[in-house]
Design brief:
Blueprint (H helix, E strand, L loop, with lengths): L30 H4 L4 E3 L3 E2 L8 E8 L5 E12 L4 E14 L2 E14 L5 E5 L2 E6 L11 E6 L5 E8 L6 E7 L2 E2 L1 E2 L13 E3 L2 E7 L7 E5 L7 E6 L4 H4 L7 E5 L2 E2 L6 H7 L3 E7 L5 E8 L11 E5 L6 E6 L15 E5 L7 H9 L7 E9 L9
Antiparallel strand pairs: 1-14, 2-11, 3-4, 3-13, 4-5, 5-6, 6-7, 7-8, 9-10, 10-11, 11-12, 15-20, 16-17, 17-18, 18-19, 18-20, 21-25, 22-23, 23-24, 24-25
């Protein structure tokens, strides 16, 4: 069976390849050995790159009622003098006030003495932490500080010594959730960048005379892996929870970036095909319902999209609170793998698929396959 970038290989196997899948185990992931990661950048300020520390990012936080909400955090930093660095993080949180949920604005400020080891932390200009360690005047190894925000919410400021006289890095997390930076251009390599992994999962697909029931193509968004283009209902891939848009990163112990050798690797597999797929949990299906308004216009879809730095999926960077997206299960930080059963090759193409032909029906339902931004949340 020929396979190249212009064709879609159908992965069908013969009955003689069928074995007891339970007797086999998935091999160790090759990605850890090669250093390849599927990552998005975590927001941080840098004492040695103050001009580049003005940024903004997204973090998912649950409000007082337990609803997950996406918070926009603005970060800015400045050098006050030869010793002190000041970093501000500004954001709004949903909080409970009696039986109501209200917005509260916060500015968390860190003033760090790089040469004196002093730390001063403020919340809305009120001093909540002041410390000075004489040992830090000799060697400052950094540290972490808990910052109370509301009765149920807290933040943590982490000070990291980058070593070798390279200065310090400053990070804020809210309710133990890191903030994903949204300012770096796609593919823009940055020194000393920290990563938030999309993660991977291993699957085993038993071989049978009915085939695996999926087709794949080269990844249109980047060099990582190959993309599941179609899935046949009821066949092995479907039974294992594989969705259109999932990205296959390896077959057995070999990384795959093109479909040229994927078919051979599958054919050589015995009994089962071991694959590693992007995402720490099975991809989930989310529907967005956009309604027609009384004036005949469509309710706003309300999504901001951009490519990811790792080349897996289309990143949801904004959700308009007065839109159809805000009433769906989509969350900022989710990665869209497919829209209406089709794999987009860019954010612009994803928008075209979302809008569709705009039929004048009361409700236009758009179906997404996404990698969830919250690994702790069970897939739907």
């Amino acid at each position: 069976m020929a396979a190249n970038a212009g064709k879609v290989p159908t992965l069908d196997m013969t009955a003689k390849d069928n074995m007891d899948a339970a007797s086999l185990k998935a091999p160790p992931t090759p990605h850890k050995n090669t250093g390849r990661r599927l990552s998005k950048q975590i927001m941080a300020a840098d004492s040695s790159a103050i001009d580049a520390s003005k940024s903004w990012g997204l973090v998912s936080v649950r409000d007082g009622g337990g609803t997950a909400r996406n918070v926009r955090v603005v970060q800015k930093a400045e050098v006050e003098d030869m010793n002190m660095v000041k970093v501000d993080w500004m954001f709004d949180l949903k909080d409970t006030e009696g039986d109501k949920i209200v917005d509260r604005s916060f500015t968390v400020t860190l003033r760090h003495g790089r040469r004196t080891g002093i730390r001063k932390i403020y919340v809305n200009k009120e001093l909540v932490e002041r410390s000075k360690d004489l040992l830090k005047m000799v060697k400052d190894n950094g540290g972490a500080y808990q910052v109370p925000l509301t009765r149920s919410k807290s933040a943590e400021i982490e000070i990291i010594n980058k070593g070798s006289m390279q200065g310090f890095q400053y990070k804020l997390s809210i309710d133990d959730m890191p903030i994903e930076q949204q300012t770096a251009a796609p593919g823009n390599a940055q020194a000393n960048r920290d990563e938030l992994d999309i993660g991977t999962r291993a699957v085993q697909l038993p071989k049978s005379s009915n085939g695996l029931g999926m087709t794949l193509r080269n990844n249109p968004l980047g060099p990582q892996g190959v993309v599941v283009w179609t899935v046949e209902p009821g066949k092995v891939a479907d039974q294992q929870g594989i969705q259109v848009g999932d990205v296959v990163l390896s077959v057995e112990d070999s990384l795959v970036n093109t479909i040229d050798n994927l078919v051979d690797l599958v054919a050589k597999s015995v009994g089962v095909v071991n694959m590693e797929i992007a995402g720490t949990a099975p991809s989930k299906i989310v529907e967005l319902n956009a309604r027609l308004k009384e004036d005949g216009t469509r309710e706003k879809y309300g999504l901001g999209l951009q490519t990811t730095s790792c080349g897996v999926g289309i990143l949801v960077t904004e959700i308009d609170p007065n839109s159809a997206a805000s009433n769906s299960a989509l969350r900022m930080g989710d990665c869209l793998l497919s829209v209406e059963g089709l794999v987009p090759n860019s954010p612009k193409e994803a928008v075209r698929l979302i809008i569709g032909d705009e039929p004048k029906v009361d409700v236009r339902s758009v179906r997404f396959v996404v990698i969830n931004s919250d690994p702790a949340q069970a897939p739907l």
